[in-house]
């Protein structure tokens, strides 16, 4: 009986970034938008996590400051959740931070518009 020689992927091998980039290059516009939204959700979750940790707070302590439940803070720190801008503003304000938003020209990298959203000020 002949055996087929199959090559198995090494689970410890690092992914080849060229393969990933070529895979992403094949995305259609809808898939590119979905990827960008997923990356933004991850970035926001990381930002909220790091802001809390920078203050040396547990999720429970941060939640208490913000008038939230610990589970809400936990959800903020996971990319599957997209909190509203007002919620992020309020949460970060309770931790002693303001939120700064910039509109960056993608062709030049220059900030076209910047706005500092201070805690407790409603922008809607």
Q: What does this entry look like structurally?
A:
- The protein has 124 residues and is mainly alpha-helical.
- It is globular and about 45 Å long.
- A two-stranded antiparallel ribbon has the order 1-2.
- The protein has helices at 17-25, 29-54, 59-66, 70-76, 85-94, and strands spanning 99-104, 111-117.
- The model has no long low-confidence stretch (mean pLDDT 86).
- It is built from five helices and two strands, in the order αααααββ.
- 48% of the residues lie in helices and 10% in strands.
Entry summary:
The chain has helices spanning 17-25, 29-54, 59-66, 70-76, 85-94, and strands at 99-104, 111-117.
Structural class, from secondary structure content? mainly alpha
Contiguous helical run count: 5
Poorly predicted regions: none
Average pLDDT: 86
Task: Give the CA-based shape.
Answer: globular
Tell me the major beta sheet: 2 strands, antiparallel
Structure summary, number of beta strands: 2
What is the terminal-to-terminal distance? 72 Å
Q: Largest beta sheet: what is the strand line-up?
A: 1-2
Element pattern in H and E:
HHHHHEE
Rg over C-alpha atoms, rounded to the nearest angstrom: 21 Å
Q: What is the strand content?
A: 5-15%
Helix content: 40-55%
